Amino acid sequence: MVFDLASRIEGRLAAAGATVYLTRGRRGGPSLAERTAFANSARADLFVSLHMEAHGSRHARGVASYYYGTGSGVSSTVGEEFANLLRREVIARTGMLDCGSHAKTWDLLRLTRMPAIRLDCGYLSHPVDRQLLLDARLRSTVASSVLAAVQRLFLPAEADPPTGTYQLSTPA
C-alpha cells in the first residue's frame, strides 16, 4: 500500500512538472542510510518518507508528521513548515485523527541536505485506519494532499489558500 501511495504521489507531482525519485520499489528496499544518501546525491529539494504504522495498542491511530529538530531550538525551519502543511492537508481532506507534527533527530531527517519529513499515514493495526488505508480513494486523497502541500510550500504567503481548499489545475 505504501508503494501504491508513493506511485500516486509521483504521478501527481510529475504531472505538475516536478521530478520525482522513488527511493524504493514495490518489493524490498534500501536501508534508511541508503535512501538518505540517494536523496543527497540526487540533490532533491524535498524528501518525504511515507509510512503506514502498526502498534500493539488498540488505541494507536491517526496521522503524524516528523521533521528534524532537537527540541532545544535547533531545527529545520522549512522541514517543520512542510511537515505541518502536509499533515494539515491530509487531516483536512481525509478527516483522520490528527496526531500532530513532532521534532525528531532521526538520521533520515538529520542527514539529508534538503528539508526532510516523515509522514505516518495511519495505523494498519487500528480497524478504522486500516479500513481507510485499504481504500484506493483515500490513498488518492493523501496523494493530492502531498501535491497541495508541496505547492503551498513554495507559494508566497499572500497567495496561500486555507488548508484543504487548494485545488490544482491539471495540465491539458
Summarize the structure in words.
It is globular, with a radius of gyration of 15 Å. The two termini are about 30 Å apart. Helix 1 (about 1-15) packs across helix 6 and helix 3 packs antiparallel against helix 6. The chain has a 4-stranded mixed sheet. Strand 2 (about 65-70), helix 3 and strand 3 form a beta-alpha-beta unit. The mean pLDDT is about 90. Helix content is about 45%, strand content about 15%. It is built from 6 helices and 4 strands, in the order ααββαβαβαα. It has helices at about 1-15, 30-40, 75-95, 105-110, 125-135, 135-155, and strands at about 45-55, 65-70, 100-105, 115-125. With about 170 residues, the protein is of the alpha/beta class.
What is the oligomeric state here?
single chain
- SSE ordering: HHEEHEHEHH
Main sheet characteristics: 4 strands, mixed
Q: Which structural class do the helices and strands define?
A: alpha/beta
Low-confidence stretches: none
N- and C-termini, Cα separation: 29 Å
Work out the strand percent: 15-25%
Overall mean pLDDT stands at 90
Compute the CA-based radius of gyration: 15 Å
- The percent range for helix content is 40-55%
